[in-house]
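ok so I'm stuck.
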Amino acid sequence: MRSRSQHISGFAANSVVEKLAFFWSIFVPMISLSVVPIFFPETALAQVGHGAFLKPRLQLVTVILSTTGSGTWTVPNGVIKLESVECWGGGGGAGGYSGVMSPAGAGGGAYAAKNDIVVTPGTQMNFNIGTGGASGTISAGAAGGDTWFVNDTTVLAKGGTGSTDTLAGVGGLAASSVGDVIYPGGTGGNSPNSGGAGGGAAGSPSGAGNNGIDASGNVGSAGGASPSAGAGGTGGTSNGTTGNSGSPGVSNPDGGGGGGGAGYSSSGPGNTGGAGGVPGGGAGSSSKLSGINAPLAGSGGNGQIRIRYRRHYLAPTP
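replied:
not stuck anymore, here's the structure
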């Protein structure tokens, strides 16, 4: 009986390749694609029984980590370099009305990326993802947490600061972040009147986050947009008697938009500012109110880590 055979151009066959060839000679008619984590030259071509061919290929793999807090990520087998690691800091939370004026918007998280990180397969890499800042009631909003990978000296994106009723939150600072490419988050808008102000956007691979818009009159203002990423939330409307809440910033894998500020209502507990988009959008603020029950302002968007690497595999030729 004729035995099944394999011919490899560019390198000598070995026991691993022979076993792989046997696998493909059995299963190629049954499946269209299989992934095998083994390294071969790009010019190599494997012929398996019945005229089927295998060709080495490279696949770009993207992993997004979004659970806040500390953790570990295990380097996959066969991976010796990470093409890029991108981090977004958490967005700041907006403060609530304290009887002075409408609160200002919060700052967006910074963006930081590092390229070509050499790794060892099976190694557990430490990371931390910053939580978006909590909103305030009659107090200042909380700052967004910092996000880092390996440690805070390898790649680090700073979180945006929270706002008060008189001071806008500042975007995550580029000068305090670490990486090959760094962009700051946007600063929140101010609100000298009754409407709430928009939050600043997160930085993105395309640039610095845009600032939140200052409020004017009773109408809430829009949040800043993250460049080529999440749009800012719209501000709440108001006719001077009734108004509505600001909308949240748009979430986008490249950067979250800032939340919109709330519109003014002359009675009741007031209206809520929009939350920041994920990752890293700063929160919009609540509106001024005449009642004693202060509404919650928006909370900041959580941070994020995105990892990209390439892996080798063998696939059948068309």
